Amino acid sequence: MTANRTPYSIIDVDAHISEPHDLWTKRAPAKYKNRLPRVEKVNGKQAWIVDDGIQLAMAIPSSVIYKDGRKSKGMEFLNWGIEDVHVASWDMRARVALLDATGLYAQILYPNVAGFGSQNFMKVKDDGLRQACAQIYNDAMSEIQEDSKGRLFPMALMPWWNIEQCVEEVARAKTLGLKGIVMCSDPDSIGLPDLGCDEWLPFWDAVDDSGLPVNFHIGASETSFNMFGRAAWPSMGWSRRLALGSAALFVENSRVISNLLYSGLFERCKKLKIVSVESGIGWIPFVLESIDYEWIETDSQSERKLSMAPSEYFKKHVYGCFWFEKTAPMKLIDTVGEDNVLFETDFPHPTCLYPGVQDYIAEVSAGWSEGRKRKILQDNAAKLYGIALPH
Fold first, then answer.
1. CB 158 within 8 A of CB 134
2. Spatial CB neighbours of 56, under 8 Å, sequence gap ≥ 6
3. How does strand 214-217 pair with strand 274-277?
4. For the chain, which end, N or C, has fewer CB atoms within 10 Å of the first or last residue's CB respectively?
């Protein structure tokens, strides 16, 4: 085992699992034996199929790490299969070994196949099957967490298309021992009330009571996932479209967080914690300043009473995560708030902080106090997700 280069048990709060092809089928109840997500060939390429030929996604592992540990740049990963990538992308025992090798203690894990807000499951028309897709994924993630012995912590998917099912799944996730949930950012995209409406209060009350943080990963809905959509001009080639789309995707979460801060939700849910995942932290000071300013300029208080400025709710309830940034971690922590900042790598996705994790940490934290390092690299995440640290 490679020892940490810092004295801290570093917690990486955003990494992804390249789902093994048997994740659902090996756990399928008889009722759904041949209907749950599986990998089949479609027009000569492997794809994730559900029910009677519905395509959820292409069966690419979304990993840019070669089997030998080198990192690919460009778009070739879009043609890779699970057999082409580093085993730690999909084998979680190998992932724990990689944590040891890179000097990390624990990781929070997010999905690929379901979409970052489980929006891909809306392609399934059968409500019972759709719910089973989410529940079996959560069962599998509970197994991964247990097998990792306190090193890997997958977040639970929510059946966001049904508010009552969400309330039930929050309770089930808590029973399974999972440490947080993944939520779709825009249920109104399918005609449901938006997350600020009273219809969602049973869900918000359930997560507030549970103590589980609600994680909004970038691209967590059909509305917000626009990697190859409107970000780039049509004249751009595919590499530039990917680059511009990725950059635009990072800051999309400012919309989600701003709406939550304006909603009045935190007046009701005093313990609720929200994490803006894979969105960086550089945008936070400007956005908070602007929504505070516009709250006054537009007399929004006459429409929705808040007991404090929107930015003050952020300080009490919201966390941001950084990985490749340098300006914000080195110059803006005081403004963002050291209690509101978490560290991530996004392994094994494009733009992931790999392999030079420790070199990056050493560079951006060079001017931090030891107390700040401990908070951002370890304590904030441990407290938020209820992760036991080694003695």
1. yes
2. 37, 47, 48, 49, 50, 113, 114, 120, 121, 123
3. parallel
4. C
Cα 323 to Cα 361: distance, rounded to the nearest angstrom: 9
End-to-end CA distance of the chain: 17
Two structure tokens written together for 322: 């950084």
Q: Helix, strand or coil for residue 12?
A: strand
Is a pLDDT exceeding 80 seen at residue 229? no
Predicted confidence (pLDDT) per residue in 11-65, tens digit: 999 999 999 999 999 999 999 989 999 999 999 999 999 999 999 999 999 999 9
Tokens of 330: 């080195």
Three-state secondary-structure class, residue 45: strand
- Which amino acid, 92? M
Q: The tokens 């932290």 sit on which residue? A: 281
| Residue reference for tokens 């929050």 | 170
Query: pTM for the full model?
Result: 0.95
Length of the chain measured in residues: 391
Structure tokens at 282: 């550089």
Which of 218, 137, 139, 143 has the alpha carbon at shortest distance from 184?
218
- The three-class DSSP label of residue 174 is helix
- Report, as an integer, the average pLDDT of 69-78: 92
How many CA atoms, within 13 angstroms, populate the side-chain half-sphere of residue 91?
Answer: 11
Mean pLDDT in residue range 62-75: 94
Instruction: Tell me how far apart the alpha carbons of residues 131 and 71 are, in angstroms, rounded to a whole number.
Output: 36
Amino acid identity for residue 169 in this structure:
E
362-366-372-376 Cα dihedral, nearest 10 degrees: -30
Q: What is the model's pLDDT at position 3? A: 42
Cα(86)–Cα(93) distance, integer angstroms: 12
Helix, strand, coil percentages, rounded to 5, for the chain: 45, 15, 40
Pairing of strands 106-110, 152-154: parallel
CB 99 within 8 A of CB 151: yes
For the chain, helix (H) and strand (E) counts, in that order, are: 13, 12
The pLDDT assigned to 335 comes to: 97
Phi/psi of residue 311, nearest 5 degrees: -65, -25
